[in-house]
Amino acid sequence: MTNRIFTLTDQDGKSSEFAVQEGTHGPGCISISDLYAKTGCFTYDPGFGATGSCKSSISFINGEEGILLHRGYPIDQLAEKSSYLELCYLLLNGELPSETEFAEFDSSIKLHTMVHENIRDFINGFRYDAHPMAMLVGTVGALSSFYHDSLDISNPEHRQTSAHRLIAKLPTIASYCYRHHRGLPFMYPDNNLGYVDNFMQMMFSVPAQDYKHSSTAARALEVMMILHADHEQNASTSTVRLAGSSGANPFASIAAGIASLWGPAHGGANEAVINMLDSIYNSGETIETTIARAKDKNDPFRLMGFGHRVYKNFDPRAKIIAGLCHELLDELGGDQPMFDLALELEQATLADDYFKERRLYPNVDFYSGIILRALNIPMNMFTVMFAMARTVGWISHWLEMHHDPEFRIGRPRQIYIGHAKRDYPG
Ligand code: CMC
Predict the structure, then answer these.
(1) pLDDT at 284 over 80
(2) Ligand 1 pocket member 303 (CB < 6 A)
(3) Model confidence at 2: pLDDT above 70
(4) What is the distance, to the nearest Å, from the Cα of residue 226 to the centroid of all Cα atoms in its chain?
(5) How close is the Cα of 197 to the center of ligand 1, in Å?
């Protein structure tokens, strides 16, 4: 697999060779595990922009061409032809399921949709105005105190049970975070329903009357979940791997991922985009002043929903979501003026040299809030929706890490720039 070699030569002419490891697609990585032994130096790469942290066969991004593959399948084909639960199976197991495999997987997920009754009490203990992400991160971490019977990380059956539990329980917990916040009774899952329909039922139904949602709304949510299911070594996935690398249990590791997702540079961007569009719409900001602020190096403001570490072209997920916005708003209604404003803002940035030179395009979060709003999901639940969909990606990476023969605790190095050694006074 390896045939390229790089040679590093120091000022005294001492050379060291480093082999390149190639993957199926994408640039090779110079293997530097023995760099310190050969040169006495480490590498320095803030933000890990040039560092491969693991070998993975789950998903692949070609940022130049705007391509995203899950287990080799392009995201647009999965969004069109697959279901979220089938994608979960694919991400976890590497191949699409046969009919029997899917039926078994579906019933295993359904077996685990309920949560321990004390988890309902646990959620009730949060203040009425707690942010749903605060409740989610705490509750998922707390799962490890309820499900001791699947915490032996060296046991493959335990690992699988925990993975299925997480995928099954996240919609229940996410809906409870919302219901607690709204003062609504918690609804039990209904295993006669599919994964997405069940979530919508737990979110929006009330015991006093019948509940029905449109199939268009359910399909839109399903596609949103497919688009958010995995995205290789992003900040939250890398956090899950790093937390898990110490041997932390899967619930604690996923809670760490949820915490990382929360920030506005990552999953919190969908909420920030709507706030930004709202302030253009309602508070006298214009597209021009907003773009000018984003370009001003003295202003920390960034155009939310734009730019990506890897995509230097359209984010393929953003393209699919923009199409979905057209369909959904046509059929269900929703915030059409906000969508029109988003389209206008996108056009203005595409024509602007600052954004062109830096290759900043709309990312998945730019349009996702508009869809979630049309589905009546409140804004403070947006990042929870992202976390619910991404749980399968996180746990797939956590499982893959436990199979990796090169797996060891993650422990980066540093350049120490503090005081030189000195004596304590007196
Ligand atoms: N608005 C204005 N300028 C930007 C933006 C933006 N959204 N994004 C990047 N830039 C500029 C940045 O100031 C820098 O300019 P210069 O070269 O003059 O210093 C240049 O573009 C490169 O930016 P960077 O900060 O080095 O890029 P990064 O790879 O470290 O950051 C990012 C990627 C996504 C954090 C960043 O683009 C950003 O903050 N975007 C807004 C938040 C957002 O939409 N996040 C969602 C990401 S996609 C979903 C997810 O991963 O959760």
Answers:
(1) no
(2) yes
(3) no
(4) 11
(5) 35
User: Given a cut of 60, is residue 130 above it in pLDDT?
Assistant: yes
Checking DSSP bridges between strand 67-70 and strand 73-74, what pairing results, if any?
antiparallel
What whole-number percentage of the chain has pLDDT above 70?
Answer: 100
The lowest-confidence range among 67-71, 84-88, 169-173, 281-285 is: 281-285
Q: Is the CB of 270 under 6 A from ligand 1?
A: no
Residue 45 appears among annotated catalytic residues: no
**CA dihedral for 163, 68, 236, 117, sign (positive or negative):** negative
Selected catalytic residue, list 106, 197, 230, 365: 365
Q: Mean pLDDT across the stretch 256-284?
A: 90
Ligand 1 test: best mutation among 295, 302, 310, 359, most atoms within 8 Å of CB?
A: 302
Q: What is the CA radius of gyration of the chain?
A: 23
- Which pair of tokens denotes residue 286? 């214009």
> What's the token pair of residue 219?
């399909």
Q: Which ligand 1 atom minimizes the distance to the CA of 363?
A: 48
Closest to 175 in 3D by CA, of 212, 204, 197:
204
* Numbers of helices and strands, H then E, in the chain: 18, 6
Ligand 1 geometric centre to CA of 291 (Å):
14
Closest residue by CA, ligand 1 atom 17: 358
Q: How large is the average pLDDT for residues 90-102?
A: 98
| CB-based contact 176:198 (threshold 8 Å) | no
Is the CB of residue 392 less than 8 Å from the CB of residue 167?
Answer: yes
> Closest Cα to atom 47, ligand 1: which residue?
266
* CB distance 132 to ligand 1 below 6 Å: no
Confidence band, pLDDT 50/70/90 cuts, at residue 333: confident
pLDDT category of residue 360 using cuts at 50, 70 and 90: very high
